Automatic annotation (TrEMBL), chain A:
The lineage of its organism: Bacteria, Pseudomonadati, Pseudomonadota, Gammaproteobacteria, Chromatiales. The chain crosses the membrane at residues 397-419. Keywords: ATP-binding, Kinase, Membrane, Nucleotide-binding, Transferase, Transmembrane, Transmembrane helix. Its EC number is 2.7.11.1. InterPro entries: Kinase-like_dom_sf (IPR011009), Prot_kinase_dom (IPR000719), Ser/Thr_kinase_AS (IPR008271), TPR-like_helical_dom_sf (IPR011990). Gene3D superfamilies: Phosphorylase Kinase, domain 1, Tetratricopeptide repeat domain, Transferase(Phosphotransferase) domain 1. This is Serine/threonine-protein kinase. GO terms for molecular function: ATP binding; protein serine/threonine kinase activity. It is an enzyme of class 2 (transferase). It holds the Pfam family TPR_12. Coiled coil: none annotated. The keyword Cytoplasm does not apply.
Amino acid sequence: MLSHKHFEYIDELFDQAIEQDETAQERFIDSLAGENPELAHELRELIAQFRSSDTFLSLSAWHSRDRLLAAALDLEDGVMAVATDRSNQVLGSFRLDREIARGYRAVVYKARRIDTEWEQVAAIKVLQRGVDSDDVLRRFLAERQILTLLDHPHIATLMDGGRTEDGLPYFVMEYIEGRPVTDYCAERNLPLKTRLELCRQICSAVAFAHRHLVVHRDLKPSNILVTDAGQVKLLDFGIAKLLGSDVDPAIAAQTVDVVRPMTPRYASPEQVAGEAITSATDVYQLGLLFTEILTGVSNARDALGLSGGPDRHQAPPRTPSRAMLQVDGASPFRPRELRGDLDWILLKALEPRPEDRYASAAELDADLENYLSSRAVNARQATAPYLLRKFARRRPVLSAALGLSLAGGLVFILVLAHFNRQLEAERQSALDAAARAAEVRDLLVGFIRSPDPWSGSGADARVSDILQHSEATIETQLEGRPELQVVLYGALADVYQNLAAHERSVALREKTLALHRTLGTANSFASLQAQRKRAQSQMVVGETRTAVATLERLLARIAQAFPDQLREAALIDIEIGRYHNTYGRAQDALPHGRRAVETLETEVEDPSLLAQATTVYGNSLGLLGQVEEAYNAYARAHEINHKNRGEQDVATLISRARIAANLSNQGRYAESIAIYDEILPPLESRLGPLHEEVLAVMNNVAYSHSLAGNRENAIWLHRGVLERRREKFGDTHRQVADSLQNIGSQLVHTGRYDQAIAPLEEAGRIYALVNAPGHSRTAYPHVSLAIAYAGIGADALQEQHARKALTLLQGQVSDDHPALLRARCLLGDSLVRNGEREQGISLLERAVDGLTGKVGISGEHLEACREALTQARQS
Amino acid sequence: MSSQSGRGRDDSPAEDNAAHLDDLIGKIYHDLRQIAHLHRRGAYGNLTLQTTALVHEAYLRMAGTDSELSLQDRQHLKALTSRIIRHIIVDYARRAGAAKRDAANAPHERIEDSLIEPMLDVGVLDLDVALHRLSGRSPRLEKIVECRFFGGMNVQETADALGLSPRTVERDWRKAKAYLLRFLQEDKSKMNA
């Protein structure tokens, strides 16, 4: 119809039509239809296209254009530019073995670790030019803690990241030998049930990541491998987000210079439209993927006739069971088996609007489980979902529920949105909603939980933004629903606690406790739990006395009112034990630790908690001088963690660090150092170079070296710790002063007195600034400085620092504290030299008396004091 | 340079002098490559390539250095650059298609997917064919698509480059897309039949 001949005429009519409003257009076309129906039809078609042409040749097409132009201009004299083969290159601690995969964004190599004794194979993904390396790395560092601790049997671990010498970002991942899931199913001609089980494994991995606030965004068969043992492994979790534009979609639409990570065939409508990406985005991709797994079609989007775009004009899709009819070749099961529930489940996952789908993989998984156990599936109960209605109606696109159109797909928002819908509908009683809230809480509690509570500033800025919004939402949207508020504030407080944002967490606990009082549930178990958690946070922020008083009270209360809550009691015992250990009151700590261990060994199954309890118990034993018993406890904790979490898990590595510290206390320095050397690289690769656990281990190795007499090693290591602490905390921080003190004291020990003075003075200045008045540690640099000046022979300065140290220590530490005694002997020594012999000798005698019979470091002090006393007597 | 996008039918004044035009195209092509190379080597601190920025940069280079350019040339420079980009991309897609067919022997060759609208299953070559059909009916609509899509220009820039009012560009851009969608639809149904 649009031939040359008619074109001008149609074009003119087209121009007229688009100037009119819809009703006028209708009339206009109708009037034409009588005399030329073909022409009217063409005009109608054109107007329909005109109205829906907005997305055509826009965002996603621009990306394709940019990509193609870049590739085209990349051609060198007509030869395709091929990314460098990096086989045999060394990246960080790995040597690249050989290339195993290549896409237009990245090349993947099999690699081997070269800096350790043990064999470690990894897959290293080197990104190609075209991505903004700095941006990718910055994102990686910001998200590193979440991503590297995404520890799930069906997720290939992301271990590390970095930058090649020529500036391209790379990621180190667990190496997986397997087949893409769709190939695996086809090659083995798997029955339906086995395929469904694979789907459930995939769901469990994605759900786990969702609970950790990580959305995959690029789920496709090549990212989901199945090993020969039938184990699913998901690759590239979080990587798409590192590559993608995570900014406000409105901004992303203006700056189209990002190479979009999304794979068009599996893209969700909101990805195509550049709208906010949420956990429901993964659900959509799972819908496509599961359709391919279950039906055997090679392209679910085409087979179902999905538009894929945000355009909701499209006709309803085919059901998966119908789509399966088109598949050639024999299937071990019939399409009929998918009809009904499975069709419903898949189409619900594939709803064009995110809010019509399952909110997260966990919900999808639950429905698959319902199906497998022959329970009613939730998909069927949904009210008139879009895809299942016969006639599609255009609906406005809600970019995000509750107006929380923030970037990043956070389950929390979706869950709140879900809630809100329920509340609006008032379909459920307040009690039902509370039960639902409990589920939500369970979902949230696991967030970002790891054996490694994030230190200090760990909270990702984006996550904290969302959390703040969530708090406001609970406050305003759920006003007058205290039974919901109490659960959600609690959940939010858990998230903050896991993020080590303890002050925020305490504030929210206060809110929940106030609500408990309003609701008359102040003595409920939930309220007691909230009090325990508040106390745990208070311990961290320094309100230790209040905290321990609460814990003691809770312990009594639980024994009386909730005698069955043994796990809670054990948790409290562990916390109290830890507190007493910290303050050196091992005697008080011991019964708590012991009781927790007993409970957890016999009554409650919780290996992680048992390992913690055993460690606390071991710490008490160690403090009481029962070093070998302590060793056994640490070895047990390690064994539990090893069995439960695997060798390379952070908790397992840290329990080995305790064994090493214990060996060091036993004087078995070489063994201790060997363990430290072994665990430091994996610990650093998983936690990053600035993590406090890594720094603590480095510090301990240095300590072991110094005790073993390898002072140079010790100094070198302490300098490394100092550098990292300066980077982490800035120049004025207690831990920076600790490092300076360590370095200074080692230099004093090696007789380099003049070099020791500067770091010791800096340590003294920082301690004076940051420590509370009377803090004993403020005295340490002065003790060391007095020794240094004694070595140089500067008597006046020796006396000055010794006096200062004594003033700071007296009354703050016990009378037989080695530092106090050493300070006394340094003062005595300087007095003797300054002519006050009597007084000096008396001080020296008191010091020697006090130091006699002590082991460890005190031995050195004793020797030094004895020598000073001998000299004084001879003078 | 292939001439399949119907340059001969173009009625822009800048193309009256064919020799001069070839010269100009050569220069623009060269500049585009050079700018892309600079981007790749990181000289611009950014490894990504953005068509809009590229066109602008090429324009600045040409307009700034070539004193022989007439005012008319200058006005048409961006439109011309957009057309050249279309050539480059279409040419590439054709070659990539050929390479893909021979791909069995070279599985590691980097081949870009030349789909430009994956949702509609529209490749660059399909779009090029549809654009040819459109140019036979309205060269103006074709140019608007070249500027807006291939050159990444906004409405105002397109209006300046083609000497049209922004309102016309706005309306014609949507019209052009409606026609293209119809052509693509027809092509598809013909193929299926």
